[in-house]
């Protein structure tokens, strides 16, 4: 048994209470010291570093509002839509809880996309933070699954037909596809069994995985330390007490700093919830206020905005596009054969030949599914694709900033095209955008080390304000 800490008898009552708890629950106080009071973060954080704490805030909002929604929601194909209407019309403040949850879903992806972009431009995925990045990408992937399953629950027209389209994509997988789609649906069509399965995963299974990944992400981050806009390792220079010279305790400095970001976020979030919860149809589509009808297909089926970049890539893969991809794979194999040595040449040529052969005998729909999944999976490999000698974009050539800017604009164009009905012109643009998206990552080992780089400073650049 550990020795109890004693404090003077004349100490304030609050100190005595804290000491009582610390003696009986020291693990909690040790966690507070390790992850807040004695966790030193770089002193040059800027506004890009708000989005990590905001993602945590939105996660809490989603969990709390979800708990209250589950109290009144009925996961039954005959009752689901009516139960949502009951929440909106008859449950006291039910409309507010529902709109907070639906707006929170979009807010979650806004802050996560910005959080990931910050990691991209400042090189937060570079050694020794590879595992932090991988956990973050896993959170993004699980969040997409959570959002997709939750999107089905209102049982409106777009919920039903969106699920129909996405689940049917799995049937394009050779050999196991039809059985896999049947297992996901739980029936031969999207129906009551599908709704119950998605409800179970959305409310219990996926949130548990998500929370576990968030904890792992934070623990891994605090083990290796936070990156900063200069990409300088603050642990390299410490004072006599072992504290980083360029670091400050996370609490109270950055907890107070994050309160400012939270305040601004809540003002914007509240304005949307109270005045524009549908956001012109981007957050809540008009078709989803119509109960699901298996006999009436909407004129245009599109996912919510945060899925649309990947949906655009899915639709971009036509038979003609498969031929273009075959050429790209062939060029990749040739480049591998030229640049690699020994057995690497054989592997590069053999892999290229195998992929091209598979493309020749497989339906384009299947490769659309592969490309859509690969667009997310490729993010996991970013730490090993970037060969830049510096971390932060601040010390990279100016044309690198143009490359990142083009990548962002291209991603936004793909998102817009995913909302619009298909057309020949949009199809060509989305095909070019898909090639540009994958080119950014697959050519990164080449372009990331080109150009004249500025010397990284030994200490962080910080001007107090």
**Major sheet details:** 2 strands, antiparallel
Q: Beta fraction of the residues? A: under 5%
Total DSSP E strands: 2
Q: Note the run of SSEs as H and E.
A: HHEHHHHHHHEHHHHHHHH
The assigned structural class equals: mainly alpha
Radius of gyration from the alpha-carbon trace, in angstroms = 25 Å
Q: Helical percent range?
A: 55-70%
Low-pLDDT windows of residues: none
Distance between the termini: 48 Å
* Structural shape: globular
Counting H and I runs of at least 4 residues, what is the number of helices? 17
Strands of the largest sheet, in order across it? 1-2
Overall mean pLDDT stands at: 91
Characterization of this structure:
This protein is mainly α and 465 residues long. Helix content is 63%, strand content 1%. It is built from 17 helices and two strands. It has helices spanning 13-24, 26-37, 51-70, 80-89, 94-122, 130-152, 157-169, 177-185, 192-224, 250-275, 308-316, 319-339, 343-361, 364-377, 398-419, 424-442, 444-447, and strands at residues 40-42, 247-249. Strands 1-2 form a two-stranded antiparallel sheet. Helix 11 (308-316) crosses helix 15 (398-419) and helix 12 (319-339) runs antiparallel to helix 13. The protein is globular and about 80 Å long. The two termini are 48 Å apart.
């Amino acid at each position: 048994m550990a020795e109890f800490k004693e404090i003077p008898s004349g100490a304030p009552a609050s100190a005595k209470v804290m000491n009582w708890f610390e003696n009986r629950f020291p693990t909690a106080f040790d966690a507070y010291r390790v992850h807040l009071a004695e966790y030193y973060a770089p002193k040059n954080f800027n506004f890009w570093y708000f989005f990590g704490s905001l993602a945590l805030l939105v996660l809490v909002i989603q969990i709390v509002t979800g708990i209250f929604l589950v109290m009144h929601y009925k996961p039954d194909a005959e009752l689901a839509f009516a139960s949502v209407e009951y929440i909106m019309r008859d449950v006291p403040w039910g409309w507010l809880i529902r709109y907070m949850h639906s707006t929170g879903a979009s807010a979650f992806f806004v802050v996560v996309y910005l959080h990931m972009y910050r990691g991209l431009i400042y090189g937060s995925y570079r050694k020794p933070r590879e595992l932090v990045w991988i956990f973050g990408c896993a959170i993004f992937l699980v969040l997409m699954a959570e959002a997709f399953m939750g999107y089905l629950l209102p049982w409106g027209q777009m919920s039903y037909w969106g699920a129909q389209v996405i689940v049917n994509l799995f049937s394009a997988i050779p050999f196991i596809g039809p059985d896999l789609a049947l297992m996901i649906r739980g029936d031969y069509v999207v129906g009551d069994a599908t709704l119950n399965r998605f409800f179970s995963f959305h409310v219990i299974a996926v949130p548990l995985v998500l929370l576990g990944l968030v904890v792992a992400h934070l623990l891994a981050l605090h083990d290796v330390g936070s990156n900063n806009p200069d990409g300088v390792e603050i642990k390299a220079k410490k004072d006599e007490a072992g504290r980083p010279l360029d670091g400050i305790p996370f609490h109270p400095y950055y907890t107070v700093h994050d309160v400012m970001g939270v305040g601004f976020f809540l003002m914007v979030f509240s304005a949307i919830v109270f005045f524009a919860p549908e956001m012109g149809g981007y957050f809540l589509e008009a078709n989803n206020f119509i109960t699901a009808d298996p006999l009436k297909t909407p004129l245009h089926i599109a996912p919510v905005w945060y899925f649309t970049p990947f949906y655009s890539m899915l639709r971009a893969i036509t038979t003609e596009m498969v031929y273009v991809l075959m050429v790209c794979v062939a060029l990749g194999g040739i480049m591998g054969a030229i640049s690699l040595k020994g057995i690497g040449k054989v592997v590069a040529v053999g892999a290229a030949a195998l992929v091209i052969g598979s493309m020749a005998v497989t339906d384009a729909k299947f490769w659309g599914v592969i490309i859509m999944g690969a667009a997310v999976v490729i993010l996991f490999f970013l730490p090993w694709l970037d060969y830049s000698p510096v971390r932060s974009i601040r010390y990279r050539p100016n044309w690198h900033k143009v490359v990142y800017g083009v990548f962002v604009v291209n991603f936004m164009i793909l998102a817009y095209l995913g909302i619009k009905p298909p057309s020949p012109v949009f199809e060509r643009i989305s095909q070019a955008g898909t090639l540009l998206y994958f080119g950014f990552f697959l050519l990164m080992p080449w372009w990331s080390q080109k150009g004249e780089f500025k010397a990284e400073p030994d200490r962080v650049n910080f001007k107090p304000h």
